[in-house]
Amino acid sequence: MPWLQVRLAISPEQAETYEDALLDVGAVSVTFMDAEDQPIFEPDLGTTPLWTHTHLLALFEADTDPDNLVAHLELLTGGTLPTHQIERIEDQDWERSWMDNFQPMRFGRRLWIVPSWHAAPEPDAVNLLLDPGLAFGTGTHPTTALCLEWLDGQPLQNCSVLDFGCGSGILAIAALLLGAPRAVGTDIDPQALEASRDNASRNGIAAERFPVYLPAELPQAPADVVVANILAGPLVQLAPQITALVKPGGHLALSGILAEQADEVRAAYQDAFDLDPTASKDGWVRISGRRH
Fold this sequence. Notes:
Elements: E1 3-10, H1 15-24, E2 29-34, E3 54-61, H2 66-77, E4 84-89, H3 94-101, E5 105-107, E6 111-114, E7 126-129, H4 142-152, E8 160-164, H5 170-177, E9 182-186, H6 190-202, E10 212-213, E11 223-229, H7 232-237, H8 239-244, E12 246-258, H9 262-269, E13 273-275, E14 279-281, E15 284-291
Parallel strand pairs: 6-7, 8-9, 8-11, 9-10, 11-12
Antiparallel strand pairs: 1-3, 1-4, 2-3, 5-6, 12-15, 13-15, 14-15
């Protein structure tokens, strides 16, 4: 069925007031959205930060009267509404729409990420089957793409691989399909480990080729290739630990880094690695190198 959608342009300070007011006047859902593509990283524990310019979207039953709705909201909040837009939107098969928007993607020369409901565009290529699940990594984000492209260019035969912050397992599974005999994954989130196991099974990867661990359980065995697609802050903080997990002469790729954070991350690793030129994509970067 169709819906009446209200979009309000608010500041973080107004969020609670207008969220409560919208729910009080009958909104069936309220969603906060970034109005200006402003990333938020590493919030303090117990906080839920909002963007400087936030859009608050609320859905109402289709027969809701817009004029009465505005009048009630202004009465509840004690003033004129912020800049807003009210429109009727048609219902749709959201799952089908979402599936249609997730298409096979190519990374480097050999590697494709293919959702399970699509045929592989190049059946003889390296095809990694992956269904978007809990947003642990699907290849659509530039940081994941940068790491996949890097892995595609590595000679992984006879190499051990560690995926530090494995999420969906996409990087480790890609390395295995590209020729690595064994990979290890670690993540702080047990759900990520479960997603990694499921995705490995979907791609015919035996459990013994891709064991996954919580950080406290991770064997401290250095690997030939280490990939860490997390965030700049942890990459800097954990530099000694991550460095120790790379064999002398081994290779490292780091991502999850904004362009303006690149110098700080490079500085944390430059004493232990011969670093390659920084690679960039859509404002994000990858830092890679070979351990001394």
